[in-house]
Amino acid sequence: MRGTTVAAYLSIAALAFGTYACGDDSSETTNETTVSTSSPSTTGGEMMTTTTSTSSSTSSGGTTAGVTTEAMTSTAGETVGIETGSTGATPYCGDGVVDPDEECDEGDANDDNGACTSVCLSAACGDGYTQPGEECDDGDGNADDGTCKLDCTLPVCGDGIVQPGEACDDGNNIDDDACSNACDLTSCGDGMVQMGEECDDANLDNTDECNENCQFPSCEDGLLSGLETDVDCGGGNCQGCDLGLTCVEPGDCGSGNCQNAVCAIAMSCNQIKLGNPDAESGVFEIDVDGEGDLEPFNVYCDDAGKVLNLQQYFERAGAAPARLHAPRVAPGPALVGLPRAA
Predict the structure, then answer these.
(1) Mean pLDDT on 226-240
(2) pTM of the full predicted structure?
(3) Closest Cα to residue 266, out of 283, 248, 250, 282?
């Protein structure tokens, strides 16, 4: 028994000496020693075996290491076998070491807005973190028709993708095509002169200098536009309007006679010439008393606006055809140049 005890103490001392070797300046040390002894029976002469287990952990500078030693000695104090294992700290994201399940690890520099995120994954578009070079990142919510596109850029007019609030997006900066730089469909009246338009004054008013088709008014556009008093006539720039059409003044009518804002039969050759300065000599219808009882009749007017002769005798209401002088009616100018009936 005494030999066994000495051998056991020697083994423990040897292990302890190895554990506290030179260079151990740790700030925290933990030791655990276990000794187990089995003695032979007094009759069987069995050899005594001693098993010693020593565990030591040292902590310094934030790093932890452990050493485990197992020794078996005989009754003579002879060491039969020793096993020693050494284990490091459990790895974790942020320890500065890239572990198998990590893409990166910059230690304390890990940052969701940096190159290595807080979960030790390399920064990338679609990870849900807005990193340098990215305008946005909605993670799985990134979509080209959403608030953050698949390339982590914000949607803008001109990117070629029709976003909410855009009527179109042709991906260019041409403002006079079918899709404006504001991503609106272009149309006459939007204030922008587009291809096929002569003008665009941001309204559809035909009475100004740009009509509802974004063309300059003309006497052949089929519209009551510009200064016209009726469609494609009157107003001084177009030909005189036909009978029954709207007028403002005598010159608006081909007949030269504007009565109650409507073109009426001319009352004289002079009115005909006023309404149509280019009128040539020929037979024209006149109504010398306007809205009076006398029916209109034909006369031959020369290109100077004078009556040369009557083509038809006119008669008063109820009077039999007879040799009559020109009726004495009020209009005055209508009778200028009228010859006496034959």
Answers:
(1) 93
(2) 0.43
(3) 250
